[in-house]
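Appendix B. Chain record.
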Amino acid sequence: MVRTRRIWVTAAAVLALAGGVSGTTAHAQQGPAAAASDGKLPPGWHIDRGRQAPQLVWRSGRRVPMGDARVEFRAGGRLLGVPKPERDGHTFRLGLDGARAGALKDLQVWSGGRRLDARPGADASGHAAAVRPPAPLPANPVDPGRPGQYRTETGSYRLKSVRLPGFSVPVEMQAVVVAPTGVSGARPLALFLHGRHATCYAPHGGSDDASGAWPCPAGTLPIPSHRGYLRDQQLLASQGYVTVSISANGINGQDWQAEDGGAQARSSLIRLHLAHWADWARDPGHAPPIVREAPRADLSRVLLIGHSRGGEGVNRAALDSLYPPPADQDGYHGKVRWHISGTVLIGPTVFGQNPVPDVPSLTILPGCDGDVSDLQGEVYVDGTRAVSKGKALHSAVYVIGADHNFFNTEWTPGQAQAPAEDDFFDDPDHPDPVCSPGAATRLTADQQHRAGSAYIAAAARLFVAGDDKVRPLLDGSGRRAPSADPARVLGHAVGANRGAGFLPDGEVTVTGGRLCSAVDPDPAVACLGEGTTGASPHFAQWETAREAGRHAIALHWTSAGTPARIRVARPVSLSGAEALALRVFVPPNTRGTGLDVSVTDSHGRRAVLGRVRADGLPGSDRTASYWARELRVPLTAARRAGLDLRSVTSLELTPRSGSGRAWLMDAWGWRPGTPAVRAAGLPRVDVGRLTVDEGDSGVRTYHVPVRVSGRGSGQVRVYVVDPATGTAKDRLVTVRPGGHGIDVPVKVRGNTRYGADVPYDVLVKAVHGAVVGSYLGGLTVHNDDPAPTVTVTPLADRVTEGSALKWRISLSEAADTDIGALFVPVPAGSGGTELSTKDVAPRWLADVSGADPDPERPLSQVDGLYLWLDVPAGQTRLDVTVPTVRDQVAEPAESVTFQQADDEGKPLPGGLTLTGTVLDAS
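Structure tokens predicted for this chain:
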């Protein structure tokens, strides 16, 4: 089968060609080339040209469990794409299309902010010092983690499977219900959705037998991930909630093909279940037995709880319930007969970075998450600032020592039916001081699950029941739930009764510090930059290498007393606030950083509010511990000094420690309480994808399909990706229903030469007064020209030793993309003598295989000996040589045959061949 490349740099001394059977039509694609400075791909990488399209392939030496974070291929610091996982758990493949042109330099594999193709701790020297957990916070008077007064009952239901857009196999409608007994009246409903995990397992097999197949193959069983929250359900049910946990294996087995990672499909599944519950509440006689036996569900009070990709799914379901998605993308087309009172997001993904601004949320960040290890779920807090009214509380709690999996008992070793594991990979040679088993900060599975249950119940009690007594557990007030002990759970929040604030993303001027960028490849501009050990959830990367509009303020001082001053273009009103709440972080494992806080009003009056102390979280090079604590300082001194708190123009932070570093995320006027939330009428933006043929001539202009629905107007940031370089340009756009604010024209020039498909990607993110559903789309230009035919002509196929064998690869016409294929040596026919490792030039052998001539062996027995033959774009031929050496040994004629191979390096019957004979020179 034929392979093609377009703008990729070829590997030195590793030739690549693509062809079909001689005289037949080639199937093309672009293939890559070398990644390292010497022109060779790094260990574990290769280019597969044996399929219809060339693919960049990485094989891990250890199994990569199926998880929630996307596996990403990167080159030179930019995202190449999201590869498809093979069922073996080791192999990942990425099609090489026109959008991924460029040299494959510095190839890396990342997932959730963690690099997969480097050994954990490989850069560490020796054993890291032990890390101490922080002191326990004061206890909150009300502890929502204690069981309620009701007994519970458990049952399940299974309905007819459903088809969802973009998925070829139906998805199951299955759930487990835990409900209170002895309760009168309708009760609030809590719906759980698990994340992306293996779907099937062999009952008597090991972890290598688990797969992401769907439906499950014969001899395997579905993994009951939806039953992993029974403890959480039982706690909520004892407190009077009807709970249901739904299964999504059918989505997990197919979401690799969805641009949004399956978020829209999960939203559809959630809303399909909610629609049934609405039907059953109206007509219990048609409900499953467990639903008939349970109290009637009150659909006006719904809490959604999602784990990992399930977290992104419940966020999208809340969005879709307020702002309907395009019908052709949605699997639910009925009325919205429910109200989402809040969401709980456990170690969530946020590929779209599009949190719902007007639905209260709690995000649980596991400090030892080995799956979504960049803790990107922090965006569900940070990403809501200034988008809408700001009345909904958006809270994040950081659970020190918690991993990703142990919030679900079906993902926990010793508790799960199927094989399970701790997702924080532990290297015994380099134990992690924070997260390795036995570390003082690491939680056991039961400790972690108990803490998760307590904070889920806290969210239910605040968002659904409206009990403000539990708010201090979630809003950064520095209180703990004793039922979660010994877990150390820290919190911060935005929204609720926070008033106007100092936001680095707005119009600010900074002196004595640095306005830094959350995501930027330039270390001088980036907030953390080079030399940083560990990562920050606040700076989790999105789809682009550089982002506009995401900032923080970085402080770096070598002596005490030099203030950093943040001046806003428009005065901020702190009137009515009790305190100024700052979200500040300092380097992990540091303690006692002191900062004096002062404000100045528009009349020039200045007041020192007081001093705050910032401590770093326990952290290592493998954790995302640069996370902001909420620090509050009363406004009493400002009032006493006569400041006009309605018109505050600047904020000063003056270090009182001898030297140090700190980062300010934002500062807000704070007062207690949780106001009622009413969703604003906002425009919704959805980007579609259009595929067009390039045509044979002329220039046609197409427009990327963008749909704006809803009400009002707002601002979004639009990123347009250059398919040749992978870089993105952005602009701020005002959108409104029926308007044409987002207009991305693409000029397509037709031709009759074969080339690669070229995608023009467009991404959208909400900025103010708008929401975004489908954030990624664009236009794909499809090559509609036949590929050239490929032939092989011998130029010197019978030579004397010391001369070079030579063949010519010819194309019937030039192509706009490289054409290449893989060839492997095959054994000589019956009675023949095959060319050996001592018959060819040692340098050539090393270049094409990395092998040594000794011990002498036939070329067909050399591991890793491949010929990558590549006809560059615009050319029609390639000459291929195999240099031989002259020796003093009398020997018969020897032959060699290289045959076209498939993606596994196996010869293709009837494929192109390069055959030669070498005669003895004596």
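Further analysis of this model is presented in Appendix C.
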